[in-house]
C-alpha cells in the first residue's frame, strides 16, 4: 500500500486546488523528489513500521546532540484522493537540552502507486519542539503554495526515538490544520514522518 502514513483526505487544501484535475507532468514545477526516490521513501517507511510492530526496533532515550534527516508525508490529497504531498525533513536535536529545531521543505505532489511527480510546492515549514526521554513533540508551521493557491500549515509532530543498530531513528504521526489563505477554509489533516541520525 502506498504511504502507510494513516492520513485523511484534504480535499483542495494545502494550497493544491489547481492540481486536483486530470494530473500529468504538465503541472510539474519546482523541487521535490523524483518518482523513484519517492517510492524508496515509501518502502523505507513501511519497513520501519514493520520493524516497530514486530519489536525489532525498541524505544530509546538518546543523549548528546544529533542532526536528523528524513521525510514528512501528507496523503489522499485532491477530490479523488490520488495525490500525495511529500517533503524533506531536517532537524537538529539536542537530547540533553530537550529541544529540537528544523525545517520541512522541498515538497512536491505525487500520484498513483508509481508515485508520478505532478507538481512542486513552494514554501517551507519551521519545526520547533521538545524532547523528553524517547519522545519528540514539535510543531511545523509555515506557508506553502502550488503557484496559484497559498495556504498556511500548522501541524504537530508526535514521535518516538528508536535505536536502529546504533543509529537513532525517530518515527511518528503528524496532525493539525491547513488554512486556505484565499477562502479562509480550515481543514484538519493527518500524516506521518521519519528521520534518521546523519
From TrEMBL:
Keyword hit for Signal: yes
Source organism phylogeny: Bacteria, Pseudomonadati, Pseudomonadota, Alphaproteobacteria, Rhodobacterales
Superkingdom field: Bacteria
Record-given protein name: Transferrin-binding protein B C-lobe/N-lobe beta barrel domain-containing protein
PROSITE patterns the record matches: PROKAR_LIPOPROTEIN
Signal peptide annotation: 1-17
Entry keywords, A to Z: Signal
